[in-house]
Amino acid sequence: MSNTTPEQQQADSASHVEEPINAQTATQNNEAAEPDAEVLSPEQQRIAELELALAAAETRFTDQKDSVMRAMAEADNIRKRAEGEIDKARKFALEKFAGELLPVADNLERAIQVADLSNEAIKPLVEGVELTLKSFVNTIEKFGLKVIDPQGQAFNPEQHQAMGMQENADLPANTVMAVMQKGYEINGRLLRPAMVMVSRAPEAGIDTQA
Length: 210
What we know:
Blueprint: H1 6-33, H2 42-114, H3 123-141, E1 145-148, E2 160-167, E3 176-181, E4 183-186, E5 189-192, E6 194-200
Parallel strand pairs: 2-6
Antiparallel strand pairs: 1-4, 3-6, 4-5
Helix pairs in contact: 2-3
């Protein structure tokens, strides 16, 4: 038989009841003191890794795309420069060759001009020279060569070279009266200006008091 008094038994019971309560309270206090830490599942971790890899791949793709675009632009510039140089070389060679042919046309024209068309003996010869000149001009025109024959046209200093001026009451001032040597242009560029005589108004027709 125990010698414990009723008062002691009541105190022991109270201590046993308080002990679990204190342990539970301590646990709750510890949980409140620690910050919440997000715990990722393996699947979430894998998704995060894939997102980082995708972002890095997109960055590399953008950098490589810019490099490719720059390389393509540079290649296009090189191609255009090469084409320009080839075109210049071709035009220079063509202009030089055409320039060497101009005296041939000049000589054929002079032969026709000095020929005595009243002489029946040489008339077939003159016709042959005319046909040769016509064929020659048609051939060189296929390569971009164009004859400048400004007879009766207004004087154009960009295409004509005035060898002199003469008074002429029948023509407006600055009109080409005569073409002493035809000019030529090739592909829109002047190869040789036409040598011309230009009209001017008679002195009596000029109001010197104006």
